[in-house]
Design goal:
CATH architecture: 3-Layer(aba) Sandwich
CATH class: Alpha Beta
Number of domains: 1
Radius of gyration: 17 Å
Number of helices: 9
Number of strands: 8
Order of helices and strands: EEHHEHEHEHEHEHHEH
Helix content: 40-55%
Shape: globular
Distance between the termini: 19 Å
Structural class: alpha/beta
Length: 233
């Protein structure tokens, strides 16, 4: 299952995870007593999961969260509805709790709708710790977005094109202190011909062990495999 020395390949499928009365991500095919605490999450984040009605973690969460908490890079193969947003949001929030910092994590997404969904989940899970998010997507006023960036939120959720716009035009904004890069639905990002934008973004990020990478994709395509190599280099 190891893809590279510091990267673990994690696979999940919505076929293995159907909704239950207890949790939107619980597997009905077998009884599972695993808790979010068992994954290594702090009490405050476990309480956040409980407040959302989540009793047990989904398959992708059980696989990804413990690995991410060790600081390793991961590639998760999981579809929409598998619980993957929490699979990367919870480790990021726990790391943020341990070492608070502005511009802590960047989440790249292919669409505006997904960006807002991810922001909503971060804010719900991080409500009790005061996490601040900004959504940078096209079709919205850049000045308003720049004003929020000026307050230096913890989490940036963006589509590649609009993020580049701010990197090139918003004074004082850079990603040199970033600790986490997450690419959600990477196959869709690359299928939408965002390779040039992604390359520009990667070139502006800190290199080396100071930045952790989490890549989630529905499938492992050639483009995704190439991107994984770029993130690992």
């Amino acid at each position: 299952m190891l893809v590279r020395v510091n990267t673990k390949l994690i696979m999940s499928s919505t076929e293995d995870e159907t909704n239950s009365k207890e949790s939107p991500f619980q597997d009905e095919k077998e009884e599972d007593t695993t808790t979010f605490s068992d994954l290594g999450l702090t009490e405050v984040l476990c309480e956040a999961c409980e407040s959302l009605g989540w009793k047990t973690p989904s398959k992708i969460q059980k696989e990804a969260i413990p690995v991410a908490l060790t600081g390793r890079d991961i590639i998760g193969l999981a579809e929409t509805g598998s619980g993957k947003t929490a699979a990367f949001a919870l480790p990021v929030l726990q790391s943020l709790l341990e070492k608070p910092q502005r511009f802590f994590a960047l989440v790249l997404t292919p669409t505006r709708e997904l960006a807002y969904q991810i922001s909503e989940q971060f804010e719900k899970l991080g409500k009790s710790i005061g996490v601040k998010c900004v959504v940078l997507v096209g079709g919205m006023d850049m000045v308003s977005q720049a004003l929020v960036l000026g307050k230096k939120p913890h989490i940036i959720i963006a589509t590649p094109g609009r993020l580049i716009d701010h990197m090139e035009n918003t004074k004082g904004f850079d990603l040199r202190s970033l600790k986490y890069l997450i690419m959600d639905e990477a196959n869709r990002i690359l299928n939408m011909d965002f390779e040039i934008e992604v390359d520009k973004i990667l070139s502006a990020l800190p290199r080396g062990e100071g930045r952790k990478n989490m890549l989630f994709s529905a499938t492992m395509t050639k483009k995704v495999a190439k991107l994984q190599k770029s993130l690992s280099s």
